Amino acid sequence: MTASVFIGTSLDGFIARRNGDLDFLPPDGGEPHGYNEFIASVDAIVIGRNTFETVLSMKPWPYGNKRVVVLSSRPVDLSAAVGGVVEQMAGPPAEIVSRLAASGAHHLYIDGGITIQQFLCAGLIQRLIITRVPVLIGEGIPLFGALPHDIRLRHIATRHYPSGLVSSEYRVVDSR
Q1: What DSSP line would sit under 84-105, residue for residue?
Q2: Which among 70, 93, 108, 169 could disulfide-bond with 3, CB atoms 3.0 to 4.6 Å apart, if both were Cys?
Q3: Mean pLDDT by groups of 10 residues along the chain of 176 residues
Q4: Domain 17-174 sits in which CATH superfamily?
Q5: What 8-state DSSP symbol labels residue 154?
Q6: Predicted TM-score of the model (pTM)
């Protein structure tokens, strides 16, 4: 099982404003920077409840018929994801990965700040693709939070785009 992150941040490391707004990101994702190829490679998308609520405002449903797993210990109204293949799970990250592997998933896309942080701390992320948008927003929801220990990464590649987007890929070398 491989679990990957593909996410955009402001240059100062925020994935959203404090209120969850993503208005600093390029409209419609900006120029092509590998997302379509990445999303085609994943079997399931794992997101937290807050990310799910944000994604619901995007029309049409952005994940097509990809399997989306919303993590929440409270009931979630999944019917609002019109056209989506959405289910809910709860439990620790290792249990979620185990259940998804048992159902035939091989490559997971982990998205959303808290969810990424939890899976990273649990040693379950192998690949990070972080695209920095050339804007400083000063405050917001950080991509990374406190860590119980260092997580060593190996730089794989960095690509830059005419709009100023800079995308870097890393492999997790040591997460425990």
Answers
A1: -EEEEE-S-HHHHHHHHHHTT-
A2: 108
A3: 97 96 90 94 97 91 95 94 95 98 98 96 97 97 92 97 96 82
A4: Dihydrofolate Reductase, subunit A (3.40.430.10)
A5: E
A6: 0.95
User: What gap in Å lies between CA 159 and CA 136, rounded to an integer?
Assistant: 20
Torsions phi, psi for 76 (to 5 deg)? -125, 135
- Spatial distance between the Cα atoms of 2 and 153, rounded to a whole number of angstroms: 15
Give just the sign of the alpha carbon dihedral 30, 16, 86, 5. Answer: positive
Query: Which distant-in-sequence residues (6+ apart) come within 8 Å of 60 by Cβ?
Result: 82, 83
Strands 2-10 and 127-133: parallel
CB 140 within 8 A of CB 10: yes
Q: How is the chain split into domains, by residue range? A: 17-174
Q: Are 69 and 110 within 8 A, CB to CB?
A: no
- In the 8-state DSSP scheme, what is residue 17? -
Comparing C-alpha atoms, which of 19, 38, 18, 20 is closest to residue 131? 38
Give residue-wise pLDDT tens across range 82-93: 989 999 999 999
pLDDT digits (tens, 9 = 90+) for 99-110: 999 999 999 999
Encoding tokens for residue 7? 């996410």
